[in-house]
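I am still learning, so would you mind making up any protein sequence you like and the tokens describing how it folds?
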Amino acid sequence: MRGLYAIVDAAALEACGIEIIAFAEAVLSAPLAALQLRAKDVSARQALTLLRELAPMCRRAGVPLVANDRPDLAVLAGCDLVHVGQDDMPIDRVRRIAPGLRVGISTHTIDQLDAALAARPDYVAYGPVFATSTKKDPAPIVGVDSLRAAHARARAAEIPLVAIGGITLERAVSIVADAEAVAVVAALIPPARVAGGPRSAADLLHEAAGRACRLADVYARALRPIAS
């Protein structure tokens, strides 16, 4: 996993009046490391419906689809991975009930990271690196120095690390050497209004695609010296 890990946040999109599936399709025009649906405020049935719509879109784009929190929905929808938090189902239990499902996990401290690495997930997320407004009760900010230390541990374990929390284009550029991927939520969502008034759906989706492409290009540029 390397590059832009795009998070489609249902609540944030609804607040901006942007349709979830159309937004995901726009973002998938960029080369993504993964696409996650975060739909914490909808019913399980609604989340499953969304995942089932996203699954063929992600397959066509060659992008892994990640379900948030729910391995059962991930299996039913044919997702590639499930992402779990510290208070969700443990990795070993996920693997018992869904042995073919890959697993990523959120960590917020070095101790949590070490415990996660011992369980050998497919990736670890670490953060919030910067202040974030997309979580109702975010963990304390870890900062860039802690991210760098976490990345050294994850690299030694040969497990990709995804930086998360307050990632903008400028911040992604500054931490490109400190994580295999960056998880982005708010920086993908354009403002619904400008000085002239509300924007059209087509304009919003076009800008979302552009934002995703610019963020993805951060890692594409970082890889070019290596490839050459």
Notes: The radius of gyration is 17 Å. The beta strands are 3-9, 32-38, 65-68, 81-84, 102-107, 123-126, 161-164, 181-184, 193-194, 197-198. The mean pLDDT is 93.
